[in-house]
Amino acid sequence: MNLKVKTLLKIFLYSVVGPVFLYYLFFSFLYYQEYLTGFNGENLKEKNPLYSIYTKNNDTDYLKHVFIVLERLGFKQTHNKFNWDLLWAHDYPFRTLNSSLSKLKTHQRVNHFPGCGYITNKVDLSITEGHYTLAAFKIPEQRDEFLEYANKHPEKMFVQKSNEHRGISIKNVNDINVTTAGSFVQEFIQRPFLVDGYKFDIGVYTVITSINPLRVYVYKGDVLFRFCPVKYYPFDSEVLDKYVVGDDYLPIWNVPSLKHYYTTLKFSMKDSFDAHVRSQGKDPEKVWNGVHQAIREITLLKEGYIKEAVKRFENGRNFFELVRIDFALDDDLNVYIMEANMSPNLSSAHYAPNQLLYEQVIYNLFSLVGIGQRIRKDSLKIRNKMEEEMEVAEKNLVVLPELCMECNDCFRVECQLCSPCFTPETKLILSQSYLEHQNKMDFQRIFPPAITKDMVLKDYTLRNQLLVRWYQGKCELDHSWCS
C-alpha cells in the first residue's frame, strides 16, 4: 500500500471511525449507568416505598405528623390508587375503596380492619356488656330495660348522648326522653377520681395487628391525659366543662400537681400521674392492670364480628388498626371504657407539646407492624427467599422440642406448632408474631396475655389457643417472650 493510500486511511480512521467509536462508548456508558443506578424515569418513581392517603375531604393538615414520620422512614406519597405499599385512611375506606382493597398484594398494608366499627362505634361500644363498661341503653329500642335498671338503682345518675356523641347532658330519669330515636343513655360516674379537683380521661393508644388469631398491643411509652377546664366541685350539671372533656381541654402541664413532674423533671404524662397517685397513698398499677384487662375483654368480645367482616377480603393479613381508647376512673381507681376513636387525633396544632407523643406513637406503630423496616428497600416487598429467612427463619419459630419429638402425625393440635406440620398459613401467623415481638419497641403485648402457670385457655377460639401455646413455648425457651 503506497504512502498516499495509507495517509488517506489514517485520516478516515481519525476523523470518522474514531469519533464514531468514542460516541458509541460514551452513550453505552450513559445507558448502563442508568440501568445500574436506576436513574431512568420509571425507576425513579420506584426508588422509595409509597404511601397513599384516603380522606373524605381535601384538608389533610391534621395528618401532618403521619406525613413527617413516613418521610423520615423514606416513604413518598403517591396518588396512584393501586400502586402503594401503605394506605393510611383517616376515614373508613372499605365501602368507597372496596374493589381495590379486596384484592391487595401481600406486601400492601392498610391502617384499618374491616368491621373495626364494632369497637369504635360509640353506641355499639357503650351497650356492650362487660366488666369495664358502664350500663348503657339504646333509645328507644332498650327503653324498657333502661327503666327497669333505673328503678332498681334510684341513686344512679345518667347521661343522655346522641349517637354522634353530641348534646351530652346529665338528666334525671324522669327528664330523659325514652321515645326519640338516635340517642343512648349511659350511667354517670358520680364520684370520679380527681387531680387538683379536675375530672379527666385517659387515652391509651392500642394496636390490633391480627384477627384470627388475635394480637393486641398497647403503647406503654405514654398515654394522653385530658382534663376538664373547670373544677368538678361544687358540681353543677349545667356546666359541661366540669365533667365533659372537650377540644379545649386543660392540658397536663397546666395541672398544678402534675406540672412539675411533666415540665421540669421531664417525666411522661403517665409517669407524672403515677407519681401523683402514689403520693396520695394509692397504687397506680390498679389503673393500668384494669386498662389492659378492659382492652383484652372488649377486643375478645368484638373479635368474632370483625373476623366475619374480614372474610370478605382475600387476605386478612394486610390490615392493622390503631385506636385510642379513652377511660374514666372512679374515686377507687376502677377503670371504665368511655369510647374508642377509630382515627385518633394526631395533630398538635392545638397543643404543640403533644407533637413528640404523636410522632413517637406513629414511629413505634410502624416498627411494630413492619412498615418501619430496618432493611433499606424500594418497597415493602420481600425481594428474595434469603432476605426473608434473614429476618425470620424456621429455627426462630419452632417451640416445644420435647413435644415435637413425640409428634408422629399432625392431627394432634399442638403438633401444628412443630415444623413438619407447619402450613403456609401457620408459618405466616408465627412469622408475623415473631417479627412483632422483635420490633415492638415501646408497645406491650396484652393479647395473647402474659404467660402464667395457671392460664385458662378454654374460653379462647382454637386459633387463639394455639397462638397462646406458641407464646408459652417461646416463653419456656426465652423469658423475654413471657410478656
TrEMBL record:
List the PROSITE patterns: TTL
* TM helices/strands, residue ranges: 12-32
Identify this protein by name. Tubulin polyglutamylase ttll-4
Asked whether the UniProt record includes Nucleotide-binding among its keywords, one would answer no
> What positions belong to coiled-coil segments?
none
Q: Pfam families per the record?
A: TTL
- Gene3D superfamilies given for it? ATP-grasp fold, B domain
Q: Which UniProt keywords apply?
A: Membrane, Transmembrane, Transmembrane helix
